[in-house]
Design goal:
single chain, 376 residues, alpha+beta, Aminopeptidase, 2 domains, eight-stranded mixed β-sheet, 10 helices
């Protein structure tokens, strides 16, 4: 659920990322439950544009959703008079409102409006508790995201009450990450709100809060890469708890200022990452190690890896690092990427790592010197 805006610094390396990439099944809408279902709870909801005459049903839906959370109070006329004519409210701001209806009952809703520049804001996503887990939230969000994209949006933002933990998990599954400080509403419910954001295409630096909220998606990326025997420091099958524990450790290092973490999105899906380990040795303040370059197998070939590496080199310069090093398993596709981006080979270490079948594999060591005039 979303009670309400947010800024997210995205590098428009999205220009190097190919559009129109097919979405993985996890992002596609669930199939309808079938025609002829006599049970109203089982009937497939129909999405339609919202009307001002939906006011009574909208207020009832929001009240039902809020009733699940002690301490949240509803004062329509005092704090949310726009609910009396919500369709007109969003239309006047260049936005839109949709209603999910089943058997004459309003069981879900979502709104969207322009925020600033090419950002659009997701607003008031609510699903009746009886419909939780059925895919309706995804269906509503798909509709709003598609509308924003067709209107020219590059990025989506939203705010959600800190008490709405179920909503946090939902947005994180949909590749939104925490972005910026809390917002204090000063309302009768004493509400605090988390900001979330995501680009449709692009690369962004993730701070500690964003890294923690990205943990589910980053774990999926790591597990998928490990399953394909990619050189990601783990052997398949990767235990989900181990994957999440790995990213919790990365988030702590980000918070400690000793690691830079990037996330990469394609078609609104967080599907790539890379990190920069800042050397802590007193006599190496100019050096850093590139680690954990990963792109989900469903999104390879989109240019995302190159865009992330380009952005990481820029972040290295911002951190005062002018000498970067990395290792790559000999023969892997990443080796070609590094060479094409002017990385130089320093040598080979035989049997440096193991493949999934436990046979040894060589590693090639690469390095690159950066200057402030570099633009990859």
């Amino acid at each position: 659920m979303n009670r309400g805006r947010s800024s997210f610094p995205v590098e428009e390396g999205g220009r190097d990322i190919q559009r129109g990439h097919e979405l993985p099944p996890s992002r596609q809408c669930p199939p309808p439950s079938g025609e002829g279902a006599s049970d109203r709870a089982a009937a497939s909801p129909v999405l339609r544009p919202g009307c001002d005459t939906d006011a009574k049903s909208i207020i009832a839906l929001i009240g039902t959703c809020w009733s699940q959370y002690p301490g949240i109070c509803m004062d329509v006329d005092g704090e949310m008079p726009e609910l009396r004519a919500l369709a007109s409210y969003y239309a006047a701001r260049g936005g839109a409102l949709w209603i999910a209806e089943s058997g004459g009952d309003v069981v879900g809703m979502i709104a969207i409006r322009p925020h600033e520049a090419n950002r659009w804001e997701i607003c008031r996503l609510y699903v009746h508790p009886s419909r939780h887990g059925g895919g309706l939230g995804h269906h509503l969000l798909d509709r709003a995201e598609a509308h924003a994209r067709s209107a020219g949006a590059d990025q989506l933002v939203l705010w959600t009450d800190t008490r709405f933990e179920r909503a946090h998990h939902f947005y994180e599954k949909r590749s939104y990450v925490r972005s910026g400080p809390l917002r204090v509403l000063h309302d009768i419910s004493n509400s605090l709100e988390f900001p979330y954001a995501k680009p449709f295409n692009g690369v962004a630096v993730l701070d500690a809060a964003a890294a923690a909220s990205a943990e589910p998606r980053l774990s999926d990326i790591l597990s998928a890469c490990a399953a394909e025997d990619a050189d990601v420091a783990f052997l398949p099958p990767l235990n989900p708890d181990a994957a999440r524990g790995f990213w919790r450790g990365i988030a702590k290092e980000v918070a400690g200022g000793i690691r830079v973490l990037l996330g990469g999105w394609v078609e609104g899906v967080l599907c790539g990452t890379v990190t920069l380990a800042l050397a802590g040795a007193e006599n190496q303040p100019h050096r850093a190690d590139v680690e954990h370059l990963m792109v989900h197998p469903c999104h390879r070939g989109t240019g995302l890896a190159r865009a992330m590496m380009s952005r990481l080199e820029q972040e290295a310069l911002r951190s005062g690092r002018t000498l970067l090093t990395l290792d790559a398993r000999a023969g892997d596709r990443a080796e070609h990427l590094y060479r094409s981006m002017a990385w130089k080979e320093a040598g080979v270490i035989p049997g440096y790592t193991l493949r999934a079948d436990y046979t040894p594999a060589d590693a090639r060591l690469f390095w690159k010197a950066l200057t402030h005039g570099d633009r990859v």
